[in-house]
User: What shape does this take?
Amino acid sequence: MIRILILLNGIGLDGITDSVLSYMETIKEIEMIRKNISIKKSEKSSQEASEQALNIMLGFAGAFDKKVTWRMKNLGMTVRRFPDRQKNTLQYFQELLRYIKQNQIHVVHAHGNSATLAVEMTAARLGGCEIRLAHCHNTSCTHPFADQLLRPLFYRNYTHGLACGKKAGKWLFQERPFILIPNGQDISRFLFNPDARKSIRMELGLRDDEFAIGHVGNFSEAKNHRFVIDIFREVHRRSSQHKLYLFGDGGSEKAKVMKKITDCGLDSWISLEGFKTDIENYLSAMDIMVLPSLYEGLPNVMIQYQISGLPVLFSDKITQECQVTNFAHRFPLAIGAEKWAQKIIKLSKRDRDGEQESIRNIMTLAGFNINQNAENLSKTYRKLYKKIYKNKNMAILHK
Assistant: This one.
């Protein structure tokens, strides 16, 4: 059995958590199918399947949002909470090292966006783990000094680089090789649903002639919510038929955003909807999405919007890799809120019904099918294990 430890810096309502849990959920389904097939075959194939089975454990440090508890329970795997990575770095390092050593972890797969992943990679190396995967999800970080300081240590201790996109990989690994693991999505889940559109618009009190603008994301500085409000203020000056819906929760900017909405006199036209476990239904109800982020890797929501057939305006600070369809429009932040508003008003509602299978094919070919990507990640784990541990054991036998 291949013992794998997935590491996250907190579990919340962010894109990294969502992506990691989605991969783990899909891998769990794939492993169940693989196990059932092997049982029906010979005893030898069943034994080989058992040796190659993935035993995935999840470790995290810091914050834990109870809104994702249901996903954790459904995974049915070992979950370990470590000391806070930022407040108790030494204790975190020591406990992580001890856990890796005691459980004889074969693969450590740590997610982040900077060379501070050196902490996990060093603990894994000292704990005897031979496969140390550093997975980058962004194109910048909020602690550049620590990132630059730790890069030499990071480069010495990770064994394989992974990234959600080419720009994210280049940012962290520079000219070193890395494996591309796109943020795959459950395409069937996010395809446009006309019944959901009808029921959710009724729930929101939206008339057929009203235009729903949406944004999904926690209230962090990177998501640039205050600029979203600036954009909508300009839209509202030109049209009373438009409404803005903000989906997401948590983050340091929420109180400031709420104050700005009130100060602008837009409380009746902007609705804070909070975190939705069925966000796909709300996407079906929207008419256009905005994503003027200050920085991102390859945001999950960009792919989800396009699967739903939604027009989306996204900032030039987000990689163009996520622009898969011709209804995704990349806009410079520097041109200002007025230009963004003018573009929103010019965009008419798309007839999204009837194009679902076409979009499924487009997104699959672009590499965003979670089923294919999870299968590839499983194969990567097994391939690296076979290459490193099997070869190592063979070398010991031949001594």
